[in-house]
């Protein structure tokens, strides 16, 4: 692990893995709080690394300190649930040495019932002797090859820190120093600009990334959707629609894109167009091969929005049908509960 000022999160993370790993390595990049003190309760393998605005450099330094056959990497706000701790122990018993890496689901957000709503998949456990390296100054990635085992293990992300401008500043410092951003960094810099409301700058860098034609197809799909989001903030509806449609160059319709299109047409009060896209969202299959999935867009969200559309058309019966379907997925969702009460009031 690499950490800095993680006193609020680190203890819970280490508690969740202390009994399932054989060694814990902590690399501190300049903490000024109790992070290192907390880490000492779990391990003596604590190292300092001078921060040089490069996450990969810190990750690779941490990997260089590992001594066991396989390396598991985590962030301080990651956790393994008890169920996944047991799965990890089972994996250790059955893992054969011909496996070079093990991928695990990464649950990034959850509904009120604790069910994951957005997940990605990452190579979490890697064979040390392969000497896999991290790349990228921000949003670093581990370049892995060989025999990769796709496991049913999952890591949960419990975000506790407020969003800050650290990553944005790292990218802008690199640009000011004359560095040329590689395609992947162009995409992630655009994401940082979007997160900070710098929509014109985000549009520029998403466009640069997509026009370069060298991006990973999954990042291309994400970039089209995020570019549409930029245009939505600017109320440039036609541009947003075109950005969504451009995603079909890389794969068939995704639920996330269909829901965006449904929302755009709903905002324009084009209810029939909106309905058509939300209906498609209910029919497309979950892209299991994709590392980025917003499950809501394939389950309850389009039905919730179809309820809105049909209510505006005066079709209360169909509106109720779709709200009931949404409720079958998320019965305690505030919007679902509101719709139930609202629709009941219309029946009186």
Automatic annotation (TrEMBL):
Domain Glycosyltransferase 2-like as annotated: residue spans: 1-137
Keywords recorded for this protein, A-Z: Glycosyltransferase, Transferase
Keyword Transferase included in the entry's annotation: yes
Listed InterPro entries: Glyco_trans_2-like, Nucleotide-diphossugar_trans, TPR-like_helical_dom_sf
Presence of keyword Transmembrane helix: no
EC code(s) of this entry: 2.4.-.-
Gene Ontology MF term list: glycosyltransferase activity
SUPFAM superfamilies the record matches: Nucleotide-diphospho-sugar transferases (SSF53448), TPR-like (SSF48452)
Annotated CDD domains: Beta4Glucosyltransferase (cd02511)
Pfam families in the cross-refs: Glycos_transf_2 (PF00535)
Enzyme class: transferase
PANTHER family, per the entry: GLYCOSYLTRANSFERASE, POLY-BETA-1,6-N-ACETYL-D-GLUCOSAMINE SYNTHASE
Listed name of the protein: Glycosyltransferase
Organism whose genome encodes this protein: Halalkalibacter suaedae
